[in-house]
Structures are given as C-alpha cells and as structure tokens.
Amino acid sequence: MNMSSMQSALKQYKQVGVQSGIESASPHRIIQMLMIGALEKVSIAKGHIERGDVAGKGEAIGGAMSIVDGLRASLDKSVEGDLVQNLDALYEYMGMRLLEANLHNDVAILDEISGLLLEIKQGWDGIAQEVSQLEAEQSQTVSGAI
C-alpha cells in the first residue's frame, strides 16, 4: 500500500472516532481497522439519508469511498492468483456503488456495500484467528523445548 493512500484511509478511519494504537498495529490489523471504519461510515451515511441530511451523507459516503480506495490501493498486485484481482474489482465496484448511493440517496445500496464489507472482514478476521492459534502453538512448542 502506498503511504499516501494508507494515510488518507487512516485519516478517514480516525475521524470515525475509533481510538487505538494504529502506529503499532500490524498491516493485517490495519486492514481490519479500515474495514470497521468503512462499515461505520456507511452506517453513518445511512442515518444521514434517513434524516435528510445531505451534507452529512456526502461527507460520510466520501469517507467510506476514501477508505475503500485505500483498501484497493493496499492490494499487492504482484501476488499471483485470482484473489487480488477479485478484491480489486470488488473494491472498484463498491466505489461506483457508493457514488450511486450518494447520487440517489439509496439506502439499499449502502446495505449492499455493508454486506460486502462484512463478508471481506469476516475473511480477514478468520485469518487473524488462524495466525493467533499458530503463534500460540509455536510459543508452547518453544517454551516446552526450554
């Protein structure tokens, strides 16, 4: 991920109000945090649409778009296989749909985006659990050898 994209996405994430140790977070954890931030921005945008707050809706959707763009920019395109290409296309699709939601005040599109983000986030969360389990097993193996 290039640094300016990461910083822009992190800035959007910080504005959601989530306070945690971004500086010390692993790249994997940062992606999880960005997912949470994007989900929160989409939820906030939905509330603004329901209240008729056009300016708030635009700001929240703009924030979600920045985070999705940051997630897209973070993809390592040198990795072979379909996963990176599929995520790239999915993030591009989400960006276009967020524009549509903004133009048409469409809560259903925001619900669709939330569903997609949740699905990706669940995959990242599963990876984190597997890594934690492996680290715990390795730690037990090392301490048992001492």
List the helices and strands and how they pair.
Layout: H1 3-15, H2 27-51, H3 54-73, H4 82-104, H5 107-145
Architecture overview:
By secondary structure, the chain is mainly α. The chain has one domain (3-141): Up-down Bundle (Four Helix Bundle (Hemerythrin (Met), subunit A)). Helices cover 82% and strands 0% of the residues. The chain has helices at 3-15, 27-51, 54-73, 82-104, 107-145. The longest helix is centred in the C-terminal third of the chain and has 39 residues, at 107-145. The model has no long low-confidence stretch (mean pLDDT 84).
Structural class: mainly alpha
Task: Indicate the proportion of strand residues.
Answer: under 5%
Overall mean confidence score, pLDDT:
84
Distance between the termini: 39 Å
The first-level CATH class is given as Mainly Alpha
Number of helical segments with 4 or more residues: 5
